[in-house]
Amino acid sequence: MAHLAIAAVAVAMVAALFLLLQSRTASPSDVLSVRGADISFTRQEEAAGTTLSDGGRQLPLERIIAGRGGTYARLRVWVNPPAGYSDEQSALSLARRARKAGLKILLAPQYSDFWADPHAQQPPAAWRGADLAAMTATVRTYTHDLVARFAAQGTPIDMIQIGNEITNGMLWPLGSVRDGTPTEWSNLAALVNSAIEGARAGASRTSLPVVLHIDSGGDLGRSRYFFDSLIQAGVTSFDIIGLSYYPFWNGSLASLRGNLNVLATRYQRKILITETAYPWTLAGAKPGDWVTSADQLPDAHTLPPNPQGQERYFAQLRQLLREVPDGRGLGFLAWEPGWLTVPPKPGEAPPAANLAMFDQRGAALPSLDAFGP
Fold this sequence. Notes:
Radius of gyration: 22 Å
Strand order of the largest sheet: 1-4-5-6-7-8-9-10
Order of helices and strands: HEHEEHEHEHEHEHEHHEHE
Mean pLDDT: 93
Low-confidence stretches: 1-29
Helix content: 25-40%
Structural class: alpha/beta
Shape: globular
């Protein structure tokens, strides 16, 4: 009988170990908490006559995303952009719509009058000529007041992104880190910290999650260099690593996986794919479009540029995020899924209609399933 008792104990121990391992591998990231999109062009698309439909039913973009299970809308803000583009009033209007649809809000002030990315980080015209002390004060006040106005209209933000793709810094030349000197990193750290302080003061809560966003989703070396340098310079009060990941610019899903796994372990922070997109067609692609050939897609053999390939891309991206160590994969935000006709700058042709999640008629594509839990 003793050997039976020992066997029973062994079985119980194995079962307990299995449950323990299962509890450790299962994590909140099994259901990604951030599943959403940047919808900043929505009002311009609507003004141009664009209509979107899901299952034959015409609905605003934010309601389609929420109806499919999405959780977040990302709203960019330029300080004084060309007429009709994403200024503060446009973002406030979209915030009301997003909240009414049941979406949370990631606010993305870009600290520029127009597009900001690794190749362009021009300060607003009204801020130019300031020294570092004056600029940090301006950034703090601007961010505070912007966040406070969202709260005042009954749409307090749920997360803030400080700048946009600030891999080479922001508010050039004061905040440029293109030479990589300690002084440059110190200046950028002062600007970023002032923005963080202003955001949390404007939100009246020190717990407001802060995203720092760079463009190097598939580049581990570039990502590590940025965060190592900025943390060493004194920026530690942020919560989320935000990455742009466009396969046609940033490499394969395998390279993204390697980057995410190292970043999550090295910095012990959540990771958000802040921008992403994948083509659903190449028909009608023209010079100037971001994707015109399958040769630009590193995983084209398994993820062809068609509706099914786009759908599989998002499914694989979601799975990759669920597998980030310690449940640190926060989720993803698709880049402008309803951007079909609006020029990126006045007079230019739209370069990314084949990356939308709706076809040329505005009908929903299968990739919208990505927003579900």
